[in-house]
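Weekly structure sync, notes
Attendees: PL (lead), two postdocs, one rotation student
Agenda item 3: pending single-chain targets
PL asked that the sequence for the first pending target be pasted directly into the notes so everyone works from the same version. It is reproduced below exactly as submitted, 373 residues in total.
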Amino acid sequence: MQTNQLSPDTLRRLAEFRPGEGKVVSIYLNLDPTEFASGPARSTAINSVLDEAARAARDEDPSVREDVERVREVFRGFDFQGAHGVAVFACGSEDLLDVIKLPRGVDNAVVVDEAPYIEPLIELHAAVRYGVVLVNRQTARIFRASRHRLAEVARVDDEVHRRHDQGGWSQARYQRSVDKEASDHLKNASDELLRRHKRRPFEALFVAAPEAVYKDFLERLHPYLSERVVGRIEVDVEHTGVDDVQAVAEVAIAEYERKLETETLDRLLQGVGSGGRGATGLEETLKALNEQRVEALLLQDNFDAAGVCCPQCGWLGPSGVTACPADGTETVSRDDITDLAVRRAIRQSAQVVRVRDDARLEPLGSIAALLRF
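Predicted structure, written out during the meeting:
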């Protein structure tokens, strides 16, 4: 058994995995602590999804039933600590048994197919890794965040004396000392943030700071970090609980992600309008994926569509194509071709974008691609 974290390498390896014979059992288990905090609740959830897997395996080859039992054994002794969800992929013919702890909950699912079912992993992996920094003249708090989760990972406290108004030369010297202490604190905070970034990079940063501190703090950030600052939030630095920080951050993150969606669709429409680097609709998008020209695959949230694939070379096409144009092999019909499209995108290192809030993709067929050339 191999236990992995969700990473680009893991995702790409699963996207490229295709057994020489047999099928792959993919199981997703939701363990969101808000729903399954207690041991009995988790046990019920686990038994439920395993029973579903056993039912799905009844009409399959005996090796599939054996894979379900292998997963059952894994779950009996698995440490679920810290997991909000789990994904398991099993294929005995290729000695595959991968378990991935997920950072947030997923819908329970059981899929038996010729390749791993990875579509639910895409949104989790594609989620931007945010940093949220709360900083004033003596305290800094650093959080890691996603669209749905936030955790405090570091705190920097420095002793900074208060200003006073006695006047005279002693006051001026004292004031310079206080300002030096505050400046050193901001440097300590920025250094800690850089250390955290080097360990696990932030893709975007939000900063909360009093007006008098905000500009000074940004000036002390390393260029790696200053170029990632995408917004400012308003929250009390020292006395706000994690839940309240998360509530404020979620609003800012949602607004930022709507902006990213808009910019991506703007680029798509510009490419389509100029007859250049844009493909829309299922047929044209699948064609671009087959030609490995895709920079970003865009999918309307909850979109699915029927299609066909070639079992020999993996060519993808719309329904109705009976023979692969690449090698003449008889195609196989799929009720939903989107998971295969996502796998093809991952294999060519393309970004996968789920469009939730911008309605402009739907009239274009709910699926499109930005092209490299």
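Discussion points:
- The longest strand covers residues 150-157.
- DSSP finds ten helices and 17 strands in the chain.
Action: rotation student to compare against the earlier draft before next sync.
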